[in-house]
Specification:
Mean pLDDT: 75
Low-confidence stretches: none
Strand content: 5-15%
Oligomer: single chain
Order of helices and strands: EEEEH
Length: 152
């Protein structure tokens, strides 16, 4: 029988452990790498980029120069408001991570005043008297009574 390290020793893999053999489960002491058995190589954890969650509110800055301090994720837009000027800035990053030119929106406030004397409606030409109102209430109540009798 040949030497197990250099030839056939009852294993088709030349004396090495069968990588496809069922291994008993091992307790994983490192949560990043999976538990592996035998002579298999341990995989190293890959650095995965963290996803950026966009903010949906306005970030207030002191001038346009301060906008570059805030990160904008790939494919997102962020709205900035200037505290010192009547300006909004929109910073946008495309899907490749390249920042696009900043768009500027200028706004003005317009003060509107309510009229000092609101327009008054003219008085009705034919005001209803108390007697006419009572007569109308009686007619409506008699109709509702007849209707309730019919629905019974």
């Amino acid at each position: 029988m040949p030497n197990p390290m250099f030839g056939y020793a009852g294993s088709p893999y030349g004396g090495w452990a069968n990588p496809y053999a069922v291994q008993p489960p091992r307790v994983n002491s490192n949560p990043v790498t999976p538990a592996m058995g035998g002579n298999q190589m341990m995989s190293t954890p890959m650095n995965t980029p963290q996803s950026f969650v966009p903010q949906s509110n306005i970030i207030w800055v002191n001038g346009e120069e301060e906008i570059s301090n805030y990160p904008t994720g790939r494919g997102w837009q962020q709205l900035f408001g200037d505290k010192n000027k009547n300006m909004f800035y929109i910073r946008e990053t495309d899907l490749n991570g390249i920042t696009q030119p900043v768009r500027r929106l200028h706004y003005e406030f317009e003060e509107t005043q309510a009229p000092a004397n609101p327009p008054q409606t003219p008085p009705a030409e034919n005001p209803v008297t108390r007697e006419e109102f009572d007569k109308l209430v009686g007619a409506v109540s008699s109709m509702t009574d007849k209707l309730s009798e019919l629905l019974k």
